User: Which sequence fits this backbone?
């Protein structure tokens, strides 16, 4: 089954053709990073307009690279939640129009489920059940993956998501948007033990709270500036990165041990972070847990992951009609 998938939840306009949930025939991403960098973050109105301008060409290119026409696809899939509402609406309405015009089934896909499904592309042998950590700019979830379409969240962020904390802390350190990649690069030249940063506590041991950690970094930078002191930016970046990765990996591995999982997966944009990948791999190995991690190319927002998840949504009968609407927030 060949599915044309569309993703437009934030600042990437993406389209892909995926066969049977595992084989990627094309994967096109038009990014807006350079434009949003001018404002230090994503401007929702600008993102929506750029999606409108790019989506036709991106979809055409995805079909062309797959060597197919729209008529030769078997279904149309689209991210419908969660995300920036204006951005989502561009993709949803475009997909609805394609499905209606071509007479194809319309498959709605939850964005976080898509990130998890990126692992099915990279690791064809991976099958549920397993435990997954999905960490990105807007999400930090620990989930029990019962099967391809049924999940249970046992831990989540109570305030800032990990990726959001990276961006805000990076801005305080003087790095441009998106902050995560710049912190990762700077940390390679720093000492992660130089700055002692807090590990916020939560009532649920598997929930996350990164707002206080982010604020601590911002205050540290501002206080140093007021006193005329010099911040070792590389070491602060390394300390912040290690602290976030330590919190995520520690809680995740303990959840895997408590719930008896020997198979685990990492997903989302923050999954590209080198320290998180290293800590997760090391801690899982020590506990005899097999960890699956997607390649960096599939960690960020893309449509291939949406097409992968859409295949299993279709098999489960999760088909929509012309009444499909976008939603800025949507629990799993």
Assistant:
């Amino acid at each position: 089954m060949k599915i044309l998938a569309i993703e437009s939840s934030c600042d990437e306009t993406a389209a892909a053709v995926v066969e049977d949930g595992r084989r990627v025939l094309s994967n096109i991403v038009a990014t807006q990073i350079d434009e949003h960098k001018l404002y230090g973050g994503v401007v929702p109105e600008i993102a929506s307009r750029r999606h409108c301008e790019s989506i036709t060409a991106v979809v055409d290119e995805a079909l062309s690279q797959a060597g197919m026409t729209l008529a030769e696809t078997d279904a149309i899939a689209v991210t419908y939640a969660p995300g920036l509402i204006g951005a989502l609406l561009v993709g949803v309405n475009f997909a609805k129009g394609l499905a209606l015009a071509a007479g194809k089934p319309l498959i709605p896909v939850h964005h976080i489920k898509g990130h998890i499904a990126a692992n099915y592309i990279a690791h064809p042998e991976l099958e549920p059940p397993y435990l997954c950590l999905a960490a990105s700019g807007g999400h930090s979830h620990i989930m029990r993956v019962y099967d391809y379409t049924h999940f249970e969240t046992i831990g989540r962020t109570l305030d800032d998501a990990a990726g959001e904390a990276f961006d805000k802390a990076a801005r305080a350190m003087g790095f441009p948007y998106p902050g995560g990649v710049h912190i990762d690069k700077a940390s390679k030249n720093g000492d992660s033990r130089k700055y002692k940063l807090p590990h916020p506590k939560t009532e649920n041991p598997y929930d996350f709270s990164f707002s206080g950690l982010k604020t601590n970094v911002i205050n540290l930078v501002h206080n140093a500036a007021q006193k005329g002191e010099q911040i070792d930016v590389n070491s602060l970046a390394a300390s912040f990165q290690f602290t976030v990765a330590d919190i995520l990996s520690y809680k995740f591995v303990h959840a895997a041990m408590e719930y008896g999982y020997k198979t685990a997966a990492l997903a989302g944009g923050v999954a590209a972070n080198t320290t998180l990948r290293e800590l997760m791999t090391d801690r899982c190995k020590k506990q005899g847990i097999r960890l699956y991690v997607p390649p960096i190319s599939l960690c960020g927002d893309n449509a291939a992951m949406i097409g992968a998840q859409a295949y299993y949504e279709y098999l489960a009968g999760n088909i929509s009609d012309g009444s499909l609407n976008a939603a800025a927030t949507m629990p799993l």
Remarks:
- DSSP finds ten helices and ten strands in the chain.
- The beta strands are 2-7, 12-19, 23-31, 75-81, 106-110, 130-135, 140-145, 151-156, 263-267, 290-292.
- Residues 16 and 302 are 8 Å apart (CA to CA).
- The chain has a mean pLDDT of 96.
